[in-house]
Amino acid sequence: MLLSRRLMLGLAIAGTMAGALAFPALAGEGPTEIDLFFPVPVDGKLARDMGTLIKEFNETHPEVKATAVYTGSYDDTLIKTRAAIKAGKPPSAVIMSANFLLDMQIENELTNLDSLIAADGTTKEKFLGQFFPALQGNAVINRSVYGVPFHNSTPLLYINADKAKEAGLDPTKPPQTWAELTDWAKKLTRREGDKVTQWGIAIPCAYDYCGWMMETLTMSNGGRYYNEEFGGEVYYDTPSMLGALSWWNDLIAKHKVHPPGATPGPAVSTSFISGNAAMMMLSTGSLTYVRDNAKFNYKVAFIPRNVRNAVPIGGASLIIPAGLEADKQKAAWTLIKWMTSPEKSAWWSRATGYFAPNMAAYKTPDMVDFLNKNPDAKTAVEQLDVAKPWFATYKTVPVRKNLEDEVMLVLNGKKQPKDALAAAQKAADETLKPYNAETSLKLP
Amino acid sequence: MNLIDRLFRDAPLATRREITPKLGFVLTVLLALVWLIPFLWMGVATLRPASDGINLMAELMPSLKPTLDNIRDAWEIGDFPRYTLNTTIICTGILLVQFVTITLAGFAFARLAFAGKTLIFYLFLMQLMLVPVLLIVPNLSLIAQLGLYDTLTGVMMPFFASAFGTFLMRQAFEAIPTELEDAALIDGAGLFQRIRHIYVPLSLPSFSAFAIISVTSHWNDFLWPLMVINSPDKRPLTVGLSVFTKTAEGTQAWGTIAAGTLMVIAPLLVTFLIFQKRFISSFVTSGIK
Question: Which residues form the signal peptide (chain A) (predicted)?
């Protein structure tokens, strides 16, 4: 595994090296030093892979010296980036959760990439055309480019195929609607007296993940989480979200096929791998982990619908903070283009399970090979046809937590969905108030 | 029962035949066992080969084929000797400066008379109410202006003064009879000589209690060092460890995490085991439990 990974990396580097030779190195001065902030959204060994990636970049680009700076979770990375910008020490590039871009743009913390794209002699349309259309909603704000998609995800339904067969279900025909999924979950739940020995389904709910899963369920219930055009409105207290949360709650309280309480992502994947949960809804970012650890046949499928098929985008984009010197900005742009090239994109996708945002990545020979051997990696890409942007508002994290806190209360059996959503809406309206006062409510 | 009887052989005669202390002892042992389980699990998980799979991961039973692979993995991912050194520098650096500042400030509040003393003292205590996260941005700007961004000194700086420590030392100094100081004064001792020879030696238990609190809290601090430090070779243990424990959408390698955690807590754990008696007695005499 390691050897083949190195081999792929070697091939990719050889390719980029040829490209790098075309540009003469800057004479005289030393290399431009830049920092890349990165969270670890995946298994920790990838922190080492990130180190390898940056080392290769430095070797092939003598005019730049990049340092990869580990910055915690997605939320921690936002805090650190903001603090560094305010302290006058902005990093040159950041792998930022894709839905934080709008908030950062509102706060004037992002570099508009349009002029850098124009300086390369290409157009916005051409540049964005490399990436899957579904990803553009989180990269383009007011018709300007602010981020470059790096690794992205959609939620998936993971099914333990062996257990499905045992229960008389056909894993080649996965559940397509909530009704079918509820039925599957009931048939896949095993009980000994009052004790459940095997859960039908598990859906994670922890900060960050919980908001994303709520968006997933709300969208497949026909609704929207937020106003995609404007950062000041969220739709928490709506029938579509009430239906979504009630169904999730019913799986726990009424049907008793989902473990009670708010379960974090790693606990969900662990219980799926151990056979304690027969199905789970989780990011495609966990696919490599499941593939490496499952001792049974598994199947990945689209997220079932109640009203329509729809899923949100997840994952991260590369951004350049505002307020950088021109040479650092240029060096960061070189790094970003290199990291999102088809070869790098494809390599990172195979290592993590995230899908590659660059469409050309799927035409590279290594990737074609890989998909033939692992057809499960195709599902997330196919699901992109029904994918929509990830929720992004003014103060995304607090607005998201306004909902998550209430959802956790419901899953823990302490509140009814209707009351919880009303409370969440009220809290979010309060958080969004300053922005609305400055925009939609500021009348001429 | 024989073992428990023997344990109570030295107890005062009156309680030797009573049931309550024995019951208390048994309960303590049970509680200790519950407390010990995560440690045992960490030890077992560290030595469990990945080939056992995730199914056995939650079991406390040790694997039949123990392996050092997890330790090797953790060791390779993180530069632990370097992280440990950085954390040690941060903790001792903070503590040494704190000793000086809290002694002087505590003495001032306990023994000196000056205008607005009570008001200033309450202002001091109000710091304890502030959530540290609130101060991240102002502290970081200040540190960047001082040219201390991405330095260990920058990590230590905000903690050089301690409101809690000042409060603790004020209480300790106030408990010391003024007659002792008066006697020294008659012998011609100056201000710093009195602090050095009377107040400090008599407050040692409070100093060690404070040292434990200070070292453990800074040893475990994650967010602030994460904000200040960029260079990988300046990371403290917490930041180094989280490289393989913090995940959002992915999953976790429990064996590696267990091994990494073991390496992080080992120095503190060993220190505690060696100085156990002294630690406990310092808390008892300083009135914190």
Answer: 1-27
How many residues appear in chain A?
A: 444
Tokens at residue B208, please? 């060690």
Q: How confident is the model at residue B44 (pLDDT cuts 50, 70, 90)?
A: confident
Last residue of one domain, picked from the residues A345, A367, A388: A388
Q: What is the DSSP letter of A64?
A: E
Residue A363 gets which letter from DSSP? G
Question: In this complex, which of B230, B246, B249 lies closest to A69 when CB atoms are compared?
Answer: B230
Is residue A190 located within the same domain as residue A298?
yes
State mean pLDDT over B266-272.
Answer: 84
User: Which 3 state secondary structure label does DSSP give A111?
Assistant: coil
CB distance B228 to B149 below 8 Å: yes
Checking if the pLDDT of A15 tops 50, the result is: no
Chain B CB contacts of A266 below 8 Å:
247, 250-252
Tokens of A423: 């409370």
- Give the Cα separation of A422 and A403 in Å (integer): 10
CB-based contact A118:A145 (threshold 8 Å): no
Full domain range(s) for residue A281: 155-311+395-440
Q: What is the DSSP letter of A130?
A: T
| Domain architecture of chain B: domains with CATH | 3-66 (no CATH), 79-285 (1.10.3720.10)
Decide if A106 is inside a domain. yes
- Say yes or no: A283 and A407 in one domain: yes
Q: pLDDT category, A2, cuts 50, 70, 90?
A: very low
Domain presence at residue A23: no
Q: Which positions in chain B touch A153 (Cβ < 8 Å)?
A: 249
Q: Of A346, A368, A388, at which residue does a domain stop?
A: A388
What integer pLDDT is reported at residue A259 of this predicted model?
93
How far apart are the C-alpha atoms of A141 and A147, rounded to whole Å?
9
Please determine, for the modelled complex, whether the ipTM score is greater than 0.90: no
Q: Tell me: do A217 and A320 sit in the same domain.
A: no
- Residue where the block lists tokens 């710093």: B192
DSSP tag of A315: E
Residues of A in contact with B241 (CB under 8 A): none
Does the CA dihedral B66-B68-B69-B75 come out positive or negative?
Answer: positive
What is the CATH classification number for the domain harbouring A333? 3.40.190.10
Phi, psi of A94 (to 5 degrees): -140, 140
A109-166 confidence digits (pLDDT tens): 999 999 999 999 999 999 999 999 999 888 999 899 999 999 899 999 999 999 999 9
B244-255 confidence digits (pLDDT tens):
665 544 456 677
Quote the CA–CA distance of A200 and A186 in Å, as a whole number: 6
> In Å, how far is B141's CA from the nearest CA of chain A?
4
Q: What percent of chain B has pLDDT over 90?
A: 36
